[in-house]
Design a protein that fits this description.
By secondary structure, the protein is an alpha+beta fold. It is built from 15 helices and ten strands. It is 47% helix and 15% strand. Strands 7-8-9-10 form a four-stranded mixed beta sheet, sandwiched between helices. The protein has a three-stranded antiparallel beta sheet with strand order 1-3-2. It is elongated, with a radius of gyration of 27 Å.
Length: 330
């Protein structure tokens, strides 16, 4: 930070990633001529209209975010994907910076930014974190509102809880304060599942469309087990019946991950635990057949129950009929 700056300017710029607005510089004792000289000499860089970086070289991401907040004006905060980036909820920076301003304000076009307007910005704003941003719960719900599919909405909520950025109770309270939001009924139900350990949209579909819909016993989710001094997480473990159901997402696992899966399954099999592995299509397109396969493994492990049909057209009826005939002719 340049030492020739007045102490007040240095303190403000240090807090803001080396960025000062023209208004702040004037309030801290610099004249208009002094600001202009620094810009002409290259000591300062103009990042936005009336917003300066008080250093040379490539401005880092933090400086650019501060510049855009100042450019958006009074009451502006970083929100949506950009707030998610700051909270480490999103793994990568978004190509466009998302800003939210009070609903009664207007702002001109800001290159590289998307500007949202909100009537509840004072409630949504985080009280202390800088750069100014929406609270984590508000950020999650903003992203849920934007989600084109419920799977994407679920992923945002689940990820926030997995990374210990918030809790399902906090999200539920924030949800209750929103007047209108997309996916409200689905999200309210999913928060219960997330609280029970479900970590992905695929696991949630398995829980509701396979397990609950067909009357299967409840599995324990994300169970930590230790084999040969190594720790593994099992997606769905029916411990009493020595059955484990693992779920693979839409994208195939890389070779090293697939090898680890096989090692884990083999270790479980050596201890008498049957592992069934299903992909996205098995759960979403063939939930009834998947339920029947899981039920078969559970029954062989001692489950005394039987799967039930999820509806009048559920093919589990046919599976049960075939199974009954096979028993009679055996």
């Amino acid at each position: 930070m340049p030492h020739e700056l007045p102490p007040e300017c240095r303190d403000v710029a240090a807090l803001q990633g080396g960025v000062l607005s023209r208004e702040q510089a004037l309030l801290c004792g610099l004249s208009s001529d002094a600001i202009a000289r620094r810009v002409r000499s290259g000591c300062w860089q103009r990042l936005e209209r009336g917003i300066y970086a008080v250093f040379t070289g490539e401005p880092p991401r933090e400086a650019m975010l501060w510049a855009m907040v100042h450019r958006a004006g009074a009451g502006a905060v970083l929100s949506h994907q950009t707030a998610a980036e700051l909270f480490k909820l999103a793994d990568d920076p978004s190509s466009l910076v998302h800003l939210t301003i009070p609903a009664d304000r207007r702002v001109g076009r800001i290159a590289g930014a998307i500007v949202h307007r909100s009537t509840r910005i004072e409630v949504a704003r985080h009280p202390v974190l800088v750069p100014p941003r929406t609270r984590i719960e508000e950020t999650v719900l903003d992203l849920v509102q934007q989600a084109e599919t419920f799977e994407r909405a679920f992923d945002w909520a689940s990820r926030a809880c997995q990374r210990r950025l918030t809790t399902t109770d906090h999200l539920r309270r924030a949800l209750s304060k929103r007047g209108k939001i997309r996916w409200r009924p689905e999200l309210h139900e999913a928060l219960t599942d997330i609280g029970d350990g479900v970590q992905s949209p695929l696991e949630d579909r398995y829980l509701n469309d396979v397990e609950r819909a067909h009357g299967l016993p409840s599995a324990a989710h994300q169970v930590r087990v230790v084999r040969n001094r190594r720790k593994y997480d099992r997606d769905n473990l029916y411990e009493a019946y020595r059955v484990c159901v693992e779920l693979d997402g839409r994208i195939a696992h890389p070779d090293d991950k697939r090898w680890q899966d096989h090692q884990r399954d083999n270790l479980a099999a050596a201890e008498g635990v049957v592992t069934l592995r299903f992909n996205w299509a098995d759960v979403t397109l063939r939930p009834c057949h998947t339920a029947w396969l899981v039920a078969q493994a559970l029954q062989r492990g001692g489950w005394p129950g039987a799967p039930r049909a999820c509806g009048p057209d559920c093919p589990i009826h046919d599976h049960l009929l075939v199974e009954s005939c096979m028993r009679e002719t055996a």
